[in-house]
Amino acid sequence: MREKKINSIKDYYEKTLLKYKDGPKAVNWKNKKSQYLRFEKICEIGNLNNKKILDVGCGLGHLVSYLDHKKKKVDYIGIDVSKEMISKTYKLKNDKRKFYCKDILKIKKSDIKLLKADYVVNCGLFTVKNNISSKEWWVIIQKIIKKMFILSKIGISFNLMKFNVDYKDRHLHYQSIDKLIVFLEKNVSKKIVIKNDNNLWEYTCLVYK
Ligand SMILES: C[S@@+](CC[C@H](N)C(=O)[O-])C[C@H]1O[C@@H](n2cnc3c(N)ncnc32)[C@H](O)[C@@H]1O
To answer: Ligand 1 centre from 66 Cα, in Å?
Structure first.
């Protein structure tokens, strides 16, 4: 059942990729400016220089270009459930930048050593729920956050759409901060920072060990 749901998400992104081919629109962002603003907030998790980063739902690996632009020297691993996305990252690959096609929900014990990183980040993975109900998507979000935390040595960061917006699109997920904090404090960590200091309809959450 969960497999079917994740496939519906994968199909959504692969259709978007087929339509736009490349650039921020191909990973469902409006433009590079807003995508880079999201990256900026996600990267406030810590000083990323000389650290190992795992980017969950890396899409076309645009975070690598952002980190290059910011002159950050990181050891980067990107994973994405979509083979189509990963196949388009080949030009970015080198010894310090690795990409794998993996569903974060299906990470095996044997993957932990390979993927364990100082910081585990995810930019936009929680935004589109497609035809999955908000209730079911929230269950999946919690599972993904727990997996991200297990794979991190220092902390994790991710973004979510604000709950109190004046217009809601049926295929997007809007998350109450209160409910998120109750979940995090009980199941993940009490060291939480919420960043709401931007003009996006989203907030960024940083959680530390
Ligand atoms: C909005 S896109 C963002 C891509 C990239 N992080 C960026 O900001 O440019 C979300 C990505 O998450 C991936 N994704 C969705 N569910 C996933 C899962 N369970 N495991 C790994 N990747 C997933 C999608 O295939 C898609 O490429």
So the answer is: 16
